[in-house]
Amino acid sequence: MPDTHSFEGTVRASSQLAGPVDPAELQPGTSRRSARARRISGGIWLLGFVLFAVLPFWLPGLGIGDAEGDLYTASLVAIGAVFASGVSFTIGWSGVANFGAQLSYGAGAYVVADLAALHAFEDFILLLVCGALVGLGMALVQSIFIGEKTGFAFGMITLALGQLAYLFVNQTSYLYGTNGIAGVPRGSIFGFDLASSVQFYLATVVCVALTILVVGWLRRTVLGRSLAAARQDPRRALAVGLPTRRCKIIGLCVGGFIAGLAGGLYAMAVGVVDPSLFGWTMGAAPVLAGLVGGIGTLGGPVIGAVIYQVLSTGLATVTTSYVLWTGLVTLVIFMLFPGGLVTVGRQLHGDRLISLYRDGWRRIHREAAPRGHE
Amino acid sequence: MGYLSPIPIGIADGMVYVLIASGLALTFGTMRLANMAHGGFFMIGAYLLYTFSRVWPSGLFAVIGGMILAIGGTTILGLVAERVIYRRLYGRPQLSAMLGTFALMLAIQGGVGEIWGINPLSVNYPAIDNLRFVSLGGANIPIYSFVIIGAGLLAMVILGIVLYKSRLGLYTRAIAMDRHMASLLGIRTRTVFVVSFAIGCALAGLAGALAVPQIQLDPTLGADYIILGFSLLLIGGLTSIRGALLAGLLIGIVEAYAATDFPYLAGYAIYIVTIAVLLVRPRGIFGAAHEEIEI
Which of A80, A267, B27, B210 sits in a 20 to 30 Å window from A214, CA-based? Predict the structure, then answer.
């Protein structure tokens, strides 16, 4: 592609994922939206969280599932949301294609399982911090391979590292081989035992809230803006003195930290860890969730994770072919809403849903690369 | 001679890899789309051959007819998928398009599980003239390995002739080089896209059909093979057919040696080679500097 030659082309090439260069993304401490819009969005967030926290207690009353099962599914949704937020920050905000986030996730889960089940660690917070730090360590291992480019080739290296870890854990007896570790307790927080589903679910919801707050805050800081700048236009960022390589590494590490935390939560929620945590579908799930919801946005990964997890668990109870339906639903969302579900409002503005598919079709005809004969 | 005995098996395995990787390189070169569903088409080819082998278990026609069925089936499915899905992905950012094809891959995985069941299936080596193995240098080599090598070579020669001697191949190479310039010069890019996608799917179907007696069939097969395919693509250079040929044979032989000499390393071989090649030469062996996909 001739993009490497023209300056305008470079801008387009490097910011393909998140659309055109957005100056508002680059100014620290500001928001491009008005105070009223921010209040509304804050209200939606708060409402969403309250709903998220209350819904699983409410669903059994409506005849959907049973109390234990709903809480369990809801904890998995929350964990998926934490994981997807981390991965989405790495890929969508920092522009580092990490397709192997399962490395951090699985390592975090294994460490927490090992400490809690075999070394009788009980403190919930301490366990999670250990898991997250190990996730960060794994991200540092991946960052050895960050060079000039952080696109597809780097993504494939992370994928290969994940597969290596999968094979290694499967075959290594002191990591408990294919059996993994079972009977992971859920620990306690300030003396409260989290063994019951209700308390554990609330703890995971708090983790989701903290993750969102931290990621949202990080995006507004100078550091976060630097990461966005390094993604949007690496050359210009380098020219104004940003250490772009270090920016990429930081973006990767933040994602790894959050993925490790999510892995630790997963180990405690399910109580069993096994090598399938390092399987590549584990790393693909948060990326798909991010894309369904809107990668690089704050709310998108959460929405995507909810949809993805509810689809896969909900469909598993209804039909045996839930893989087929998950794939098809994801595909349809992809076709209809290229920017993810958070952009639905923008897309529907002054438009009807019916014409959306056709419109997208026409736009692709006009803008897309094949500019040959009709 | 004993030390060379893994080579025929390695080349036969490598031929399957070559077919997968060259199909991927072709679609990536023309459409600039990392097609995750390629593994799905590979898997469909394999399952179609399984179905054929249930009806027609042995003889030369079992091999040839099964291949024709697999190639035809995947080509038709590929054309349908191109019309319904891929066409809408061309204008997307590459990561988004790639994960769209990943969603298609999931759908194919689920569909295959629905049609053929999720339990592992297997196909015996088809007997040709009542002979299954030949002895070569002290090693028993399945005669089917030579079928794979022959069919793979034939397919690669045909692909080479199409790409380098025909007008269509000229157009394809022009589009791979500079798509906008090619369309300015009056090449019907849309048509070339369709044709090269169909050829890619046919190659995937042929690879699946050829590989099937050597592997166990289950619906996660496509996912396993697509990681392998992309690794090969990165080793060879993203759009290079020559690179696909070299990388496929290299990995096939390396894996065959690893399987006999270092069994505990067998699964790791391809990833280690991939990481090593990318560290030394990020664009792959035959890759051009500007081919790296940015997201």
Answer: A267
Q: Point out the residue among B104, B113, B283 whose CB comes nearest to the CB of A321.
A: B113
Short-list A5, A85, A28, CA closest to A286: A85
The C-alpha atoms of residue A219 and residue A211 are separated, in whole angstroms, by 12
- Identify the domain containing residue A155 by its residue range: 40-301
Q: Is residue A308 part of a domain?
A: no
Pick from B96, B107, B183: CB nearest A324: B107
Pairing of strands A188-189, A272-273: unpaired
Contact A334, B103 (CB under 8 A): yes
Tens-digit pLDDT profile for residues B248-274: 999 999 988 888 887 777 778 888 888
Contact residues for A197 (Cβ-Cβ < 8 A; gap 6+): A67, A68, A71, A72, A75
Report CA-CA distances (Å) from A21 to A37, A228, A309, A341, A366: 22, 10, 32, 21, 21
The tokens describing B68, both together, are: 């024709």
Pick the CATH number of B2-120+140-290 from 1.10.8, 1.10.3470, 1.25.40, 2.60.290: 1.10.3470
CB contact under 8 A, A152 and B178: no
Q: What is the pTM of this model?
A: 0.83
Q: Above 0.90 for ipTM, yes or no?
A: no
Rg over alpha carbons for chain B, rounded to the nearest Å, is 19
Q: Report how far residue B277's alpha carbon sits from residue B229's, in angstroms, rounded to the nearest whole number.
A: 15
Interface A:B, Cβ pairs < 8 A: 175
